[in-house]
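Person: Please comment on this record:
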Amino acid sequence: MTKHSVRWVPEIADLLALRSVGYDPDAYIAVIHAVAEQAGLTPQDILGRDTRRAHSYPRQVAMALCLELEGASLPRVAAVFRRDHTTVLHARRAVARRMTPALEAAMQRVRERVKGATP
């Protein structure tokens, strides 16, 4: 287990490999796990290719939160999620367009959890 009590899954192993190219995946992993838990999904669902809204929208929220919380560039978040940077841009816009008080509250819970988990 890492300092964020992250369950080991192959997709997380891929993220940890990003260290070799200068990325620090710990905060991204924390966001992915927090969003997955909030949405009732697994980290594999968030990082997967399933296009059903039940999986794709939480994935978009995770991408938007990674951009916000880490101040990361579109290409960096795209690399974490194994997507193109334009997909991350679309995710950020889609989340902003569909923002509701309930979604904002859920995102705030994820922010607080992630900020509490990072040193």
The radius of gyration is 13 Å. Helices lie at 10-16, 26-39, 43-47, 53-70, 74-81, 85-97, 101-117. The chain has seven helices and no strands. The chain has one domain: 10-114.
